[in-house]
Amino acid sequence: MSARIKPVALAALVLIGASAFTQAVSVDWATVARIREEGLQRSKVMEYESYMVDVLGARLTMSRDMQRAQGWLQAELTRMGLANVAAEPFMDYGVTWDNEYASVHMIEPDYTTMIGYPIAHTAGTDGKVVAEAVIVDLQTRDDAEKLRGTLRGKAVLVSGPATIDLATLTIGVPRYTDDQLAALERTAIVPTRPAPARAIPNPAVMTAVEKVAFYKSEGVAVVMQTDGNRMGVVPGYSRPGSGQDRWSAEGMRNSPPMMVITPEHYNRMYRILKRGIPVKVEVEVRNRIGDRVEQAMNIVGEIPGTDPRGEVVMLGAHFDTWHASPNASDNTSGVAVAMEAMRILKAIGVKPKRTIRIALWAGEEQGLFGSRAYVRQHFGDPRDAKVGMKPAYEKLSAYFNQDYGAGQYRGIYLQGNESARSMLAAWMEPFRDLGMTAVSNQSVGSTDHIAFDEVGLPGFQFLQDRTPGTGGHTNVDFLEGIQEQDLIKNATIMASYVYHAAMAEERMPRKAPPR
User: What count of Cα atoms within 13 Å lies in the side-chain half-sphere of residue 131?
Assistant: First the structure.
């Protein structure tokens, strides 16, 4: 016999070894049965989802809408029976901004109601404004000088026409196939490469912030732009520079009114103007701007643990959204799943060894501000000598997150933490019939588990189907894009993972400390 092991035999040995390793991790099948019964047969996840979407609506961080919604959230977690429910301030987040009214119409050469929304943290119009539309290509300071004195009272179209992706008109995105899931498991982690050197700014080219200031100084009636390639869709985002001026009242009031228009309506105006035919628009935007700096809040609650060591397992999702829709998928769905997971565990009366803590974040959409501040305040940061590791750093076992849409869980990402594979794979076994089968060694970013992972704490995001839906950050993210069965399954799986992490003999293994 050759000393080389054939690939098939080697694969078999690997599978046998992995299976034996997995079996060494305990699964509480009796409690899983209770979790499944409560979660699959008596779910309230859509009650949470529907109330937040239909009644509470959009929840931009540091808006009156967000503050009202967080009041409801605290009351609901308290009604659920959680302990230590609290709103924890994490930073001065500027003044409040709420859009109260928006109306935009093309009135010449033909009438049409257009779909558009104000860009967050901008000023409103001075009542109803009728303005001539003009195309503006502002790139350099020379362009600004040529335009100076010509834009007062105009509606300026500042982006080029959108190119529509016709494939997006086909409703439905296929779920992951078995082959695709297997490929995700096989994909090796790509080593982190140094960030490319930043290009030296060209002083002749105007920044986005400078362009906004120019339009304001020239007295434009409204800035109009489009973004994306999907008909009927307006993405939500904030005024350039709003993060740098910390969402200040001065920055908001010193901006011109700014709106994003759907590609098809924007393109129509653009084409007419290119024919040399005048276009007039009627616009009215009312934005309420606060008069004092306030603190943003995260909302937390707990099922207290019985172990005197005081260790903790966390789960969560970001509660904040953009402002053009209730954001049913991004991330109301994650909040509903996390709340339902806690409800399930309370309903079956678990007495966990480790405290189970839910955290529903603010400031995620602007840059993970809420979760990063929470981690820094509670656990510390070994990368920062001034902060260091706080005593609670050694008490956290793991954090589990949902924020990749509303699709059902098909697995979990390791974030490169191979030592956690056996635990995460073992806890998956009771849910293989629900399609939960993949453990991917990949790392994914852009949401709140990163706040934990980047300081060396185990933070995990579930691998989710990219199901038919509405997509986050847009004006069309409503309840109609949510598939109830997916959220029911997710909450049940989340509850079981959190429970097992809370009951495990050892805390979740960690990667090498960050440097």
Answer: 26
69-80 pLDDT, tens digit per residue, is 999 999 999 999
In angstroms, what CA-CA distances link 423 with 1, 231, 403?
A: 36, 44, 22
Read off the pTM. 0.91
Q: Tell me the pairing of strands 312-318 and 116-118.
A: unpaired
Query: 3-class secondary structure for 468-504?
Result: CCCCCCECCCCHHHCCHHHHHHHHHHHHHHHHHHHHC
Q: Tell me the pLDDT tens digit for each residue of 429-445.
A: 999 999 999 999 988 88
Q: Which residue segments constitute the domains of the chain, with CATH numbers given?
A: 26-93+294-503 (3.40.630.10), 101-168+193-287 (3.50.30.30)
CA gap 425, 27 in Å, rounded: 11
Q: What contacts 237, CB < 8 A, 6 or more positions away? A: 119, 120, 227, 260, 322, 473
Query: Look-up: residue for tokens 């000598």?
Result: 385
Which amino acid is residue 382, in one-letter code? P
How far apart are the C-alpha atoms of 146 and 144, rounded to whole Å?
Answer: 5
Instruction: Dig out the tokens for 320 from the structure.
Output: 């904040």
Calpha distance 512→293 (Å, rounded): 40
Classified as helix, coil or strand, 340 is helix
